[in-house]
TrEMBL record:
Entry's transmembrane regions: 28-47
Record-given protein name: Core-2/I-branching beta-1,6-N-acetylglucosaminyltransferase family protein
Annotated PANTHER family: CORE-2/I-BRANCHING BETA-1,6-N-ACETYLGLUCOSAMINYLTRANSFERASE FAMILY PROTEIN-RELATED (PTHR31042), CORE-2_I-BRANCHING BETA-1,6-N-ACETYLGLUCOSAMINYLTRANSFERASE FAMILY PROTEIN (PTHR31042:SF8)
Major site of localization recorded for this protein: membrane
Keywords assigned by UniProt, alphabetized: Glycoprotein, Glycosyltransferase, Membrane, Transferase, Transmembrane, Transmembrane helix
GO cellular component assignments: membrane
Length: 381
């Protein structure tokens, strides 16, 4: 009898348990429906009093993208918006060495001159350069390499405003000086419109008006790099036999630090990884690398396109390790007649009496008399 009672009691328990679950599920369902009703009422009230379309419109209209990436060709031909970047020298030189394989430009490219100022700090002759560059904004760019600690104070209206590149300390006669020059070239190469690259110091001045210099440079078949064979102690006497066979003494050259090169040679300079370590290791004072590295390398790589002269005039007549510096009393019409005249050279394989376009070294005290020379049309800016 007991075997029949036990199963009956188990069945009752299962029945009661099922009823409990059904009741609990019903309560949850009712609670869910109530929440849905409340949510619907709140939604209807919100739409009625605030309008969902106006809310969406407000949100979308206040959104502004922080930067709009250019599309199409503009992305590749537009110069950098700022000269400040965080690339290392190795990354910068690699980026600057990019060269289009198709030589014909598919857009209306206006070639520019990149004026590259290598200086420790201020540019005391900046007002003179402002006069020289005025109204030619589409035909030039400016790049300044100064000591990293120097903070320029040019006003926003100046052509020199925000034209400093990320720089490092450079020392005369050492490889760091060539590093600075390559750094200037590499930053200038990022603007695809720059076709010529002119290295200047804070003591340099132009000798002619902008249009004359622009046409002279742009029409030149040759780049202006001094590269001559000096058999004496300050030429071949600085050669180190460890540079062979890459650099033979017969190709060892000396030249002015101040160069004017076209885009093709500028790329040759920044992409070099063969000559650089040789000069860095074996050309140290009393071998002054800034006088030998570029002239020797370019003679070996592209000697047939060098004019073998600089178009930046300096006066070595006083002797010493540095050229003469000119002061206020030197600035006369006779002085400029002497600097610009009395020269003969080859320009595009023809004889020319115009051989220099820039001159140095001019002290800060020369600014006022130089501006007077502009006003009197001796310097026709």
């Amino acid at each position: 009898m007991q075997s029949r009672v036990v199963p009956l009691e188990d069945g009752k328990e299962r029945s009661n348990h099922s009823k409990g679950l059904s009741l609990k599920s019903l309560r949850l369902f009712v609670l869910f429906l109530a929440l849905c009703v409340v949510f619907s009422v709140i939604s209807i009230y919100t739409v009625k009093h605030f309008g969902i379309e106006s809310v969406v419109t407000t949100v979308s209209s206040t959104f502004q993208p922080c930067y709009e990436e250019p599309v199409g060709l503009e992305k590749w031909i537009r110069p950098p918006l700022t000269l400040i970047h965080n690339m290392s020298d190795k990354e910068l030189l690699w980026r600057a060495s990019f060269v289009p394989r198709i030589k014909r430009y598919p857009f209306a490219r206006v070639p520019k001159i990149a004026f590259m100022f290598l200086t420790k700090g201020p540019l005391p002759l900046a007002p003179l350069w402002e006069r020289f560059l005025k109204e030619h904004e589409d035909l030039y760019s400016i790049y300044i390499h100064s000591l990293p600690s120097y903070q320029a104070q040019f006003p926003p209206s100046s052509v020199f405003y925000n034209r400093q590149i990320p720089s490092q300390v450079s020392e005369w006669g050492k490889m760091s000086m060539c590093d600075a020059e390559r750094r200037l070239l590499a930053n200038a190469l990022l603007d695809i419109s720059n076709e010529w690259f002119i290295l200047l110091s804070e003591s340099c001045i132009p000798l002619y008006k902008f249009t004359f210099i622009y046409n002279y440079v742009m029409k030149s078949k040759y780049s202006f790099v001094g590269a001559f064979d000096d058999p004496g102690p300050y030429g071949r006497g600085r050669y180190n036999e460890n540079m062979a066979p890459l650099v033979n003494i017969t190709k060892w050259r000396k030249g002015s630090q101040w160069f004017e090169v076209n885009r093709k040679l500028a790329i040759n300079i920044v992409e070099d990884t063969a000559f650089y370590p040789k000069f860095e290791k074996y050309c140290r004072p009393a071998c002054y690398v800034d006088e030998h590295y570029f002239p020797t390398m370019l003679t070996i790589q592209a000697g047939n396109v060098l004019a073998n002269r600089s178009i930046t005039w300096v006066d070595w007549s006083r002797g010493g390790a540095h050229p003469a510096t000119f002061g206020r009393s030197d600035i006369t019409q006779e002085f400029f007649n002497r600097v610009r005249g009395g020269h003969t050279c080859l320009y595009n394989n023809r004889n020319s009496s115009v051989c220099v376009l820039f001159a140095r070294k001019f002290a800060p005290s020369t600014l006022e008399p130089l501006l007077n020379m502009v006003d009197s049309k001796v310097l026709d800016f």
